[in-house]
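Every protein is a chain of amino acids, and every chain bends into a shape of its own. The protein below has been through that process, and both of its lines are reproduced in full.
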Amino acid sequence: MTNIPETGRSTRVQTRLVVIQILVLSLLGTLGGRLWYLQIRQGDEYAKEASGNHVQQVVQPAPRGSILDARGVALADNETRLVVSASRTDLLKMKDDGKTVLTKLAGVLGMTPKEVMEKVRLCDAETPQPCWNGSPYQPIPVTDEATPKQALQIRERAEDFPGITAEPMAVRRYASPGKANTGQVLGYLSPVTDEEIQKAEDTDSPFLRSDQVGRSGLERQYDKALRGKAGVTRYEVDNLGRVIGEAESDPGVPGSNLVTSLDARVQRVAEYELNEAMKAARKEMDRNTNRLYEADAGAVVVMEAKTGRVVAMASNPTYDPNAWVGGISAKDYKRLTGKESNYPLLNRATQGQAAPGSIFKVVSSSAAVEAGYDFDGGYDCSSSYSVGGQVFKNFESASYGSISIGRALELSCDTVYYRLAHQEWKKDGGMKPKNPNDYFYKAAHEFGLGKETGIDLPNEVTGRVPDRKWKQNYWEANKDAWCKTGKKDGSYVEKLAYEGCLEGNRMRAGDAINYSIGQGDTLVTPIQMATVYAAIANGGTLYDPSIGKAVVSPDGKEVDAIEPKSHGKLPISKTTLAKMDDALEGVATRGTAAWRFEGWPQDEIPMHAKTGTAEVHGKQTTSWFATYTDDYTIVMTISQGGTGSGASGPAVRNIYDALYGVSDDGKVDGKKALLPKPQAELPTIKADGTIPAPKMSKDAVKDLLPKEEASPEEEYAPLDGQEQGATTPTQNGDNRDTRRHRRRGGAGRHGGGKRSAGRSGSRRARA
């Protein structure tokens, strides 16, 4: 025997070795499988991606197409500016996230460090403007107004400004030719967001991170055509970033030009006259409230009557779209979106809703004829009309005896329409209707009210026709709140809530009566009423209002014309339409608007008009003035501005004077006329992209006035701290009235359908 112990593997050791062997073999198998998957199965794909690591892309933004007026004058184009940008990616690589660099940059640019840092921070739900809402990987513009000296400092001291660039770039410019602001119509641009990039990936118009996108107005509506396609050049680089060759390039395609039906000269006149009318209204005393009219907002639309094309569209208060170029400041953003400035970004022509007052009576007149009433029959125009103990008064309690519907239009006699609407309400079954005809409500829908007109601007509102369906839906949505706050013997508002709780879904006599004269819950927009009156002017065709006239390629060779489109016909026979046309001419010659068209060359240029003054509970009256000739339709409204003829009338008359060249003595001078006939031909765009447009003066209004009484030279200044809607220079009112041969009289005179203060038929009157 030996003392040496027996050697060998125990069962426990053998088990461990087997487990280790299995584990090693499994890992080797997994690694081999993964290598096969990467190198064989996905080899081509990863090889392609790996090669891409040695390719750098350089994007050349496409020049955005210009927006032109009908004669080729640029309303929006591009200009070269020195743009200083910061790369957020590079800044975040620094220990202090680039604060030192941005502080140095602020000193060079004459800005505060806070202003610069706010420019480059990213927008989110909790970050207020200014901030960057574009891609975080795209260079963020700090300013587009750098001087050559500032740019040189940054470029020469590149080591002190890592991540900062200063380069000449094409940026958007809103030229305001002849001081035509056109802010709400043109809109503005801002950087594309990551969400928009992802959403457009699989479309025929994808975004690049460097793109700017239209946010409102024509810039948004025609963004795809205006934007074009950016060029991308790809360079092969080595691992040190040195260029070793050019891989491939996608050439850029400049954006197309948009030719509009606007006329910059008429646009300037429309803006100026609207602003002057609002300023004049603020000097007038409202005898209902015993305070000056506020005239806090307004709009005017000038439209080609035979096509629906918009020649001018002004909204007040307005703003300068250049404020958005290069990133908007906190001060400007607050002013543009704040309540104090009354939301100047809102286009009152397409987004402002108000009761139409007496300009709605053309709808009621048509409805009455459809219901079987004779247009030429006799109807009592009494001083008041009583229903259930409630008295609805005529304007200033005037009484004209038995008159026709046409004469009721001329005189704007409310009580004629009260009677007609009340009679139809009773025929329909009153409070317990059975298969009602609802002629008055159906007529409004057939006139195109209560829905969009189809204008080529985004975010148009529909207005409201308060028919039975609307009444029911509105009651269901508000019943609980009304029942909670209503009181039978409470305040006026509490009484309305009480009535609404009990019977808010029923069409009452007071609803029908108020509705017949454009009061109650009826809401319209200026563009809707311009469309209606243009249809009356052209023989009954309701056109989709349009601003875009043609999209033209950068070289002018391809022209995509935008033809007028119709969305219906007025529900009026030719005979009734002719009679209504005569009545509306009578409004301008012997009715409520006659004092505003004194001396007008009616034989040469037949004028038609309708005045309107709408009451709104808790506010001053809204002024409406609707007019047309064979060529044009003009509708103006001023919120809390007084009567139709008193506040809006003079401004509309002055716009017509400018269009046709009508002098103070009523003579027509074609040489002084801005646009006696709508512009038919498109402007010429040359192969090199240049546009030979006619010259524009510094101020289109100044050209219409005697030199010694010309308008001031100051530009529009919507961002200089004004709180009111006025956006053009103040001018001596007496000189202007004398010069233009117009007596503004007063915002409360010659009411054009205005109800007296004692009338109980307020916005929600009941009977």
In short: The chain has 24 helices and 25 strands. The first strand starts at residue 55 and ends at 60. The longest helix spans residues 11-41.
